[in-house]
Amino acid sequence: MSTSSGSDPVRTSLLKLVSRGNAIIAELLRLSEHIPSPFLQQDKDDIKKYGEVIFDFRYLSTAEACDHRVQSRQDLVEAEEELRLNHLERLERFYLAFESIWKYVTDLKTFIENLSNGIYISHTFETVLGDTDGKQLFSEAIYLYGVMLLVLDARIEGVVRERMVIAYYRGKGGVHDLSNVEDVCRLCRNTNFLAGPVPRRPPNYPEEYFARFPLPREVIQMVVGRLRSDDIYNQLKAYPSPEHRSTALATQAAMLYIMLFFVPETLKAEAATMREICDKYFADNWVLSFYMGFTVDL
Predict the structure, then answer these.
(1) Burial category of 93 from C-beta neighbours within 10 Å (exposed 0-12, middle 13-18, buried 19 and up)
(2) How much is the pTM?
């Protein structure tokens, strides 16, 4: 994999994926500060006015009954029209952000399949992970997908996502105008995770959440193996003291934290591997920043 030429197709594909990934996360963070208040259902006036025209994913199995109830009352028709006029444009931006996550993981899986099938001549997983740029970019592409999922769930609560997706779905006239709505619904379905000073984590979270659109296990294992064995950013040269190892490897530690959720069998059952990771990356540091502004106390 050429590190000096921008014409290398693998390098170009990975650069595009990583840049898209960072842009998607930035958009999620921006949008999370501007969630329309009716969909938060925190204000009594909003609940009274819009509560009967805002639905979660249960709407999909009772659509006819819900639509009939709304159409049979003039006050609900007016409330829904007001909701559409005031918020449909912003809801479209939220929907496109959710859809962009699905498109990202679809394109990432396509890249992995192409690399596996020999579409990129002279490139294999081994050559990509053996190259300085390749192992950095490939690891980051997978890591950023995991970060997207965690940021989405931490900053936009699951039930709020469902309400906004259904409101946009109804505002656009149904599935005929939204070709990827089923995949977006699967991605945005409520995980029952609640962020806060003391987060409420449901059982097997976020492993089951990450498994909604899984990546090939053997590929994740290869990347995890590379992160375990290599200093992929060559930071140890700048931090020669053993006391500073956790600082030197902090970026890789964050990437490992995310990637292990894609291979929960390693996380839960492979004690020797986890012992090695903990001794190398977390021997003296159990508070981890896995993305800008997001920390976790292990």
Answers:
(1) middle
(2) 0.92
